[in-house]
Design brief:
The complex is a heterodimer of chains A (339) and B (331). Chain A has 14 helices and no strands. Chain A has helices at residues 6-33, 38-49, 56-67, 73-85, 100-134, 140-149, 157-171, 191-228, 231-238, 243-255, 257-280, 286-296, 299-327, 329-338. Classes of the chains: A mainly alpha (339), B mainly alpha (331).
Chain lengths: 339, 331
């Protein structure tokens, strides 16, 4: 890992493990504080649903054994931790006997795809606008337009999503209202399918982008103001370098570094925002899976989805924390000095 | 051991500075939106608390609260019950798809279950704001306590508080709350607020801890220590007044997050089931296909009201930033 001090990595790693462990424990303890134990309810429901599935008695018996329902609580807890490490969340009660992990495996790519896409676009647009807000050669019009776009920052993505749905899907009928791809399209590596996915993904992605780019813009603006007054920028100007060259090579490259850490603090909010966007758009991701599970009171799925999303969030934060010292040598030196 | 604690404090540092940096740059940027002119700012008796953003934001919030408080006297709130009005009436001055015009009896229209939109907004808005305020208040108090403790006591206690807030800030509250609600079923408004508060203490804790650490070395605190002031005196009489704008800002930011979380829960169909909230109205609207049926007032009015509320909260936050950071005022 190059120059990153190992104590820094160990530190971040401990935070990651602690986060996942605390989340897993909370997910385990909470239902057990409830007067009705969802595990029992679930087994009952599975037994009812399993009447039509061959060999369901056997499956249920195995489940009972694996949950260790007759064992003391701490054994159950250890068994739970063991199964959650292996991504084994049990069986879905609503679509018995599908394992929860396979339901999640189907939904996860959609969520990750939508998220990566919207985060990358947001990052580029947001930082570009932030930089242009400060750059002295930006046309005046933009200096009025960009700040007024900031008002969207205050709104959570479900609200912007509803608005976009109404305007583009209901009124203009330009884009599809719900789903991740058309009902008539067969999923596969075909052009038709790809187009359908893009068409269906536009509105959900747009509703996230619209309300989150402002965060980057504001951060970038502050950082650019700081960079603008630096001596090396003045020197570059005095040398007669092209203004555009100064903007990209001298200002943006220096200002963009701390934006990466800002990202770590935002991931949690982004994830919950996207879950809700997926729910209102009935997008085939984790949000829809979670919402359907809530409707069906399918507790194993709720548990599994929550855990996976928290895990995803924690790992993203960890990765961002690791990237940061790689791109900013000052942090590296600061940690080395004290280590 | 001392070695690792040292480096861990350092490692935590970039994050801590960033979290402080973000609100500051926020307000700098929105300074452009500021309608006030530079004139008048030179008056040294000018009160920073009277900046236009703060006034506008607070004004809108107070209006919303008053609407809820006074509305209950003016308007018949019995109309929030299912079947108390005709179905799907549009707001006054509009026609619905069947061509029925709105009536003055239900000026904002009615929903698909026969409830008056105006009554729903009057009852639902204060509920939504209340969840935000209570959650943020509890989170804030916990944050102040933990932040001061961490900053003052230091050592092991500081380590534990810092790591715990680092860990808990990563977990998205929505998901733990979803697990909780699906295990427990219906919750009351207060319970919901308390649950959300469990995720609202981390950022004030970090903010106050960082501030206390830097203030502890400042002249006036050293002075107070030398003159034999008690720790309590230093905390509440010397340090606290300096923190007030930060605390307010953090409080408002937390109210926003708490409301976003609460609305998110309600849109997922969780949250209080028996009391109307804005999120609940939106949930009912989406589930009854109000979007496709062009019943825009049903989902649109609560959405617009929430959006206005969030914008007002943002304005208040930007205004408070100007109070705590005088450099921003000229922008």
């Amino acid at each position: 890992m190059g120059g990153i001090p190992s104590s820094y990595i160990v530190n971040r790693l401990i935070t990651l493990v602690l986060t996942v462990w605390i989340a897993a424990t909370l997910i385990w303890i909470i239902p057990r504080l409830s007067p009705v134990d969802p595990a029992e309810v679930m087994l009952g429901r599975m037994a009812a649903g399993g009447a039509f599935v061959e060999g369901s008695d056997l499956i249920l018996e195995q489940l009972r054994e694996r949950f260790g329902l007759n064992e003391p609580r701490w054994v159950q807890y250890l068994l739970y931790l063991r199964s959650i490490i292996t991504f084994d969340f049990g069986l879905s009660a609503a679509s018995f006997p599908t394992p929860v992990s396979s339901l999640i495996a189907q939904a996860l790519p959609w969520t990750i795809g939508l998220m990566l896409l919207s985060v990358i676009i947001t990052f580029i647009i947001g930082n570009a606008l932030g930089a242009f807000m400060v750059w002295e050669r930006t046309p005046r019009v933009w200096k009025v337009v960009i700040p007024s776009l900031m008002i969207f920052t205050a709104i959570p993505p479900i609200l912007s999503g509803l608005l976009l749905m109404y305007v583009f899907a209901v009124q203009l009928r330009a884009l599809p209202l719900t789903g991740a791809y058309g009902l008539t399209v067969e999923p596969g590596w075909t052009m038709e399918f790809a187009l359908s996915v893009v068409e269906h993904g536009t509105l959900p992605a747009l509703s996230i982008i619209l309300v989150t780019f402002g965060f980057w813009t504001l951060g970038m603006r502050g950082l650019m103001i700081t960079v603008q007054g630096e001596d090396y920028v003045n020197l570059a100007k005095a040398k007669g370098l092209k203004p555009r060259y100064i903007l990209y090579k001298y200002m943006v490259r220096n200002a963009i570094l701390p934006q990466v850490t800002a990202f770590a603090l935002k991931i949690g909010l982004l994830v919950s925002g996207q879950i809700l966007v997926e729910r209102i758009f009935s997008y085939n991701g984790m949000g829809k899976l979670l919402y359907d599970a809530i409707l069906d009171q399918d507790f194993a799925v709720i548990q599994g989805v929550s855990f996976i999303i928290i895990l995803m969030t924690a790992i993203s934060v960890f990765i961002v924390d690791l990237i940061y010292p790689l791109i900013d040598p000052r942090i590296r030196q600061a940690t080395e000095r004290t280590a | 051991m001392a070695d690792t604690t040292q480096s861990s404090t350092q490692a935590g540092q970039p994050q801590a500075t960033q979290s402080q940096l973000v609100p500051t740059t926020d307000s700098e940027a929105a300074g452009v939106v500021d309608t006030s002119t530079a004139s008048g700012r030179f008056n040294r008796f000018d009160n920073p608390w009277l900046n236009p953003k703060l006034i506008w934001g607070m004004g809108i919030l107070i209006f919303i609260v008053l609407m809820g408080l006074l509305g209950q006297w003016i308007w018949n709130t019995e109309l929030v019950f299912t079947g108390s009005t005709p179905l799907r009436l549009p707001p006054l001055g509009f026609e619905n798809l069947r061509g029925t015009p709105g009536v003055s009896e239900f000026p904002l229209g009615t929903d698909g279950a026969g409830r008056d939109l105006l009554a729903l907004l009057i009852v639902g808005t204060p509920n939504t704001l209340m969840i935000g305020a209570i959650a943020s208040l509890i989170g804030m108090s916990t944050g102040i306590f933990l932040g001061f403790t961490a900053g003052f006591v230091g050592g092991r206690v500081d380590d534990i508080i810092r790591i715990l807030s680092d860990v808990m800030i990563t977990i998205p509250p929505l998901l733990i709350l979803v697990v909780f609600q699906s295990a427990f079923g219906d919750v009351s408004l207060i319970m919901m607020a308390v649950l959300i508060a469990g995720f609202m203490w981390q950022s004030p804790t970090r903010l106050i801890r960082a501030q206390v650490l830097s203030m502890r070395e400042s002249g006036y605190v050293k002075m107070a220590q030398l003159s034999g002031a008690s720790t309590m005196h230093i905390m509440f009489r010397e340090m606290m007044p300096n923190l007030i704008p930060y605390l307010f800002g953090s409080f408002i930011a937390n109210v926003t997050t708490a409301i976003v979380t609460a609305v998110g829960m309600e849109v997922l169909g969780l949250g209080p089931q028996r009391v109307p909230t804005l999120g609940r109205v939106i949930y009912d609207a989406i589930n009854s296909g109000a979007l496709i049926q062009n019943l825009w007032w049903w989902w649109g009015l609560p959405t617009a009201l929430l959006a206005i509320m969030f914008i007002a909260l943002l304005l208040v936050n930007l205004g408070l930033d100007e109070v705590s950071n005088p450099r921003l005022r000229k922008m």
